[in-house]
Amino acid sequence: MSDEGVPAEARAEVALAVRDALAEHGYERLTTAKIAEAYPKSESGLYYYYDAKDEMIAAFLEFAVGRFGEELDAIEADGPEARLRAACERMFLSPGEEGADLHVAVMELLSHAPHNETLRDPLVALQSAKLDVLAETVREGVEDGTFRPVDPDATAAFLLAAGDGSTGICVALGMDVGGALRTGWASYVDGILAD
């Protein structure tokens, strides 16, 4: 069944159940039964709207696109510099931090995207939403003179790639490089800000 016919409340409930199950079990060990354990209603309710696990994951990813933008909009930061730093803090997580397990699960999904059409489009949408928010923040800072003139799209792409890379190195593998990564991106952002 198409996600378009799913009521918003049901879509959100399924998305949150997938989020919780993904964070706990990862993609490889995720089953519809494990999603059902996190779902507040009956397992049959899941199948009423979605036929397969990957359709449920795609619903979660589509939900996450909107949620990511809302979360960044809700950051209480005054001006583009503070917003950019706060956005970067959300991307550079250490093991045990809230959201770290979910970042690893999304990284797992990214590794399956080349071979899974159901996951590819919503993953592209999620990463594009992150790029758009970062680029718009940098663009605003360049336009109002907060940042020196830089290419907002290239800067956003670099920051997103660095954030995704930090998930793999620091969170997934548990390597003790989180402090160095944070120092590195902070120096990069300082370089953007320097006039």
UniProtKB/TrEMBL annotation:
Ligase as UniProt keyword: no
Keywords assigned: DNA-binding, Repressor, Transcription, Transcription regulation
An example Gene Ontology molecular-function term: transcription cis-regulatory region binding
Keyword Transmembrane helix: no
Superkingdom of the source species: Archaea
Domain HTH tetR-type span(s) in chain numbering: 8-68
DNA-binding region: 31-50
Name of this chain's protein: TetR/AcrR family transcriptional regulator
Annotated source species: Halosimplex rubrum
Biological classification of the source: Archaea, Methanobacteriati, Methanobacteriota, Stenosarchaea group, Halobacteria
